[in-house]
Amino acid sequence: MKIGILPLGRPTFDVPFAEEKLAAMLAALDSTGHELIGPRSLLFDEEATRAAMAELTAGGINHLLVLQVTFTDASMAVAAGNAFDQPLSIWAVPEPRLGGRLRLNAFCGLNLASHALGLNQRKFSWLYADPEGDIAEDIGDLLAGNRQAGRLEAEPVKKRNAAGARVATALKGQKIGRIGEHPVGFDTCAYSAEKIEAMAGVGVDVLALDDLFDAAKAVPAEAAAKVREGAEQDVSGLDAVNQEELDRSLRLKAGLDSLRERGGYNAFAIRCWPETFTQYGGAVCGPAAMLGEGKVPCACEADVYGALTQLILLEAAQAPVFLTDLVDIDAEDNTGVVWHCGQAPISMRDDAVEPTATVHTNRKQPLLYEFPLKPGPVTFLRISQSFGEPKMVLSFGEMLRRPMAFTGTSGVVRFEWPAGDMLADIIDSGLEHHMALAYGDHRATLRATAAELGLPLLEL
Question: What is the pLDDT of residues 160-171, one digit of tens each?
Fold first, then answer.
């Protein structure tokens, strides 16, 4: 066959390491005997990717293969899927859990793409495997169409209980403040305020990023100092980061408090990047951790359904919640890794490790929290719109006491089902890349909540 390749990457990740992985992927593909058409270097932007797509069109390919070398949004995967009628495959690469930065974050890119392609009813095959392993058979199956993503369906829930009714009642009249718009290519973060209101009785107000930035800049020095005192009780090492950037970051916490008081918000969905770094000059991750500990959930990337998910889990658990990315699944180790920059509530820290202050791994600005998550049972929840159909997605696992997998706040989890099965279920479900977690087993309450909200249930 003529295999058209699109090697996708972003320059904010570890480009030399990504180039090493790409070289290994190409070597593995070359060994199949198929003809490869397309660029053999990373495509970092839309212009370069569209130029490569034009080259593939002229080359008369038989199969389109997206090489998900680092994280990217889903926009180019969707554009490629729409531009070609040929079979589509995506190959994403894992990275070692060494306690340092997420150097590639390719699984999250695959996750975003699978959700977006599901919304577009575009069939695709997928592979998540290291190119330097024994993967000849897997590549053969991928290119033969034998690893095609399926479609998992949610089932109606009828059984109700008092706990589910309590959660549904508590939601009515709550409000989410959406600050800024979700990033391009993050179909996972699209939402309908009308559907949320009809489903859960939760309102959504639209605010501009400048509303937050202006509120933060207007914070008196005394109020900013009190936020710093709170951060000092949580983590050590505040003096080791850039102090001007730290001050701007801490002011975001006070600014969010001000907006919450004015608008009566129970949660926020914030466009956290790139503008908090490039326009304002400080991370909102640490402030999100502090608000989360105070039971005011904050969803990254203006993910309104992510904020709604947190509110529901918060009411069910009556404890802080954490909106995470699933960034790795290792079938051999039978574990996954949940991570988000550095915004887990401090009560989720492993007491065996001292929590510290750190900077964003890509943008190098404070404030982020850094610690591994504590061991214990955890419930995962997502109010999902996969395949364009609202549903509740529920899962369960055990957070393990392991060395920190990646910088920021992360945890190694053993799911109730084998990790390889969980990996397939995530792709087949078209799941969004954000899931909320809370400690404890809250599944009975959440199943009943699904019945109260009229949501079908999918358990992974």
Answer: 999 999 999 999
